[in-house]
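Aim 2 progress update. The chain analyzed this quarter is reproduced below.
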Amino acid sequence: MPNLPSSREQVTHAICTCLSLTDLRLAVRSHLDRDIDEIVLADNKITMVERVVDYAIRLGEKGSLVEGVLAQNPRPDLQELLKAWLAEGEPSLHFSGHKVEVIPAWALTTQGKVQLVRGLRRGFVDGFLVSHDLRYSFPKSLDAVSSAGIVQAANALRCKVDPEFEPAGMIIEALPLYGYDDQAYWQRAFDKACALGGRMLGALLVSTPSNLYEAKRQEIEQLLYDLRDISS
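Predicted structure tokens:
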């Protein structure tokens, strides 16, 4: 492998090159505690690796993924690349004046996401703040398994933000995958997030996969800005 600066794309290519599909499944199962089919349903190996890398970044589990990959193939050049990837500075988040400046949420560590969401207001959010276009971009881009995974990740993040509270009244209960079409699923998810408050809605937004986040980045970041807790 060429000695190039580490990047998500290079990591994806390296894992795809150095691990068989069986090795990839073992790495995900042993170190991310998920079956790969729970993360992505695809026949294309490159797509599978891209989704796994994105999943690890989104949940702040880059280290776990690296451990799993190297357990399957510890070749020195792969170790060097993955360790460089881990060493890359984690982005920070800040708001400046009236213009929102947010590092892509999917690239934040778990702690970075916790800090982001903790800066949002707790109370009820009017549903009209979530645009029709943003609401419908989710069912257009995500399958049922991915949708459920995002809600699960958002719930876990919300609990980390306020661990002293009981989750029951704070998180979105599991939504049924069957009996509802994709659009109905995400309408319910956004409505419930708004009802549970700005922090739950924020947790849902920052759990958005990178490809969808980047496609709707301006809307998502503006909404995060509007959800700021300015009471203190």
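Confidence is low (pLDDT under 50) at residues 1-6, 90-102. The chain is about 60% helix and 5% strand. These observations will guide the mutagenesis experiments scheduled for the next reporting period.
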